[in-house]
Amino acid sequence: MRITAYKYRIYANKATTEKLYRVLDRCRELYNAGLQERRDAYEMGIKRHPNYYDDEQRKQLTGEHAIGYYEQKRELAGIKEERPEYQDIASHVLQDVILRLKRAFDGFFRRVQNGEKPGYPRFQGHNRYNSFTYPDRAGWKLEARERPTDKKGVVKVNLHLSKLGTVKLHLHRDLSGTIKTLTIKREGEYWYAVFTCEVGKPEALPVSHEDVGIDLGVTHFAALSTGEFIENQRYYRRAERRLKKLQKALSRKKRGSHRRKKAVQAVAKAHRKIRNQRADFLHKESHKLVNQYQVIALEDLRVKNLTKAPAPKQDENEQYLPNGASAKAGLNKSILDAGWSTFTEMVSVKAASAGRMVILVDPCKTSQVCSQCHREGPHKDLTERVHSCMHCGVVLDRDTNAAINILQSAHKQLSVGTRPTRVTA
């Protein structure tokens, strides 16, 4: 069994939309209150019991200082009595808010134990808390409409939310499997319904006898070992002029005004369009590759390290020297605009469902080594786009040469039985 999420746009009238906003605000308020209660209990426990979070000592503590998921969950009945506005929200939705807070603290303590950056749970502002969840089938139901399809054949249904109303959904893709949870999510001024379903194992695609190595880049989005290229769409770059105008208009609006709110929505809408265009492109290209090739070899890139700002340079008089930060900023923007990490993840997920194999190889010297004679040449600057081997004389596109090296490295790992960096099959 595997878990799959299906996301659909919600079409609601003004009254129902206002109710969705109120529920979201109340859930955010409950989350922040629960976080504050845990912080206060921790501070009081430390003052009275210095070893409050020692395992043995904590087992002996009871009462107001032992604040956890079940204690806060039991308080919900009292909250509903004192705050009538919470009576219009399904109990399971409020319980899931407390569970969400528990998971935030579980992640915090896990990171502390592993020596990672802790990231203490933070209070959620209006623009950070964007969803609430029905953790089971209670409180909502789907119902077919009188006209079940539109002119394009898209299925139309009604979603009944208890104490909130009825909203319309257009099922642009089939909803399959057993529905486990329903999440109502806000993105800008739009609302979405996300169904989490448990589905069976998908059927694997027929075995393909073609393999491919892929070199991700900026000039071309991807170069294949077959000599083909996937062009870089540069969605953010193409929208920069419009974004600049919208952000300039936003900066001139008075804080707290209605016009500023509209300007914020316009900027968010422009960014959302860029994100959707990029996701659509990456989904389509990853789908084509998985359908055609059996083994897909990619570089194990650390995009976070690649997009770091260059370190400052100083001379003996502690005067700062040019370090190429401006050019590096432009390169970083292009790398992030391409979406390398998202593409790699999409290919891996689709390959796992289709019975294909994805191998991530070490990217070291894939551009310097010749794919024909396997000898290492001199270091190439990013401006050099052609590979001309000084040993065997072969001339190839720089990225194509790297893609062939990536595929050969993947085959070598498979042939000798060594464990590659990561394999998805």
Any overview of this molecule?
With 425 residues, the protein is of the alpha+beta class. It folds into two domains: 1-201, no CATH class; 211-424, no CATH class. It has helices at 14-48, 55-60, 69-74, 76-82, 91-113, 235-251, 258-292, 303-306, 325-338, 340-354, 398-416; strands at 2-11, 131-134, 140-149, 155-161, 165-171, 178-187, 190-199, 211-216, 220-224, 229-231, 295-299, 313-314, 320-321, 357-361, 386-388, 395-397, 422-424. The strands form four sheets. It has a seven-stranded antiparallel sheet with strand order 2-6-7-1-5-4-3. A six-stranded mixed sheet has the order 10-9-8-11-14-17. Strand 15 (386-388) and strand 16 form a beta hairpin. The chain is globular, with a radius of gyration of 27 Å.
Topology (elements, then pairings):
Blueprint lengths: L1 E10 L2 H35 L6 H6 L8 H6 L1 H7 L8 H23 L17 E4 L5 E10 L5 E7 L3 E7 L6 E10 L2 E10 L11 E6 L3 E5 L4 E3 L3 H17 L6 H35 L2 E5 L3 H4 L6 E2 L5 E2 L3 H14 L1 H15 L2 E5 L24 E3 L6 E3 H19 L5 E3 L1
Parallel strand pairs: 8-11, 11-14
Antiparallel strand pairs: 1-5, 1-7, 2-6, 3-4, 4-5, 6-7, 8-9, 9-10, 12-13, 14-17, 15-16
Helix pairs in contact: 1-5, 6-7, 7-10
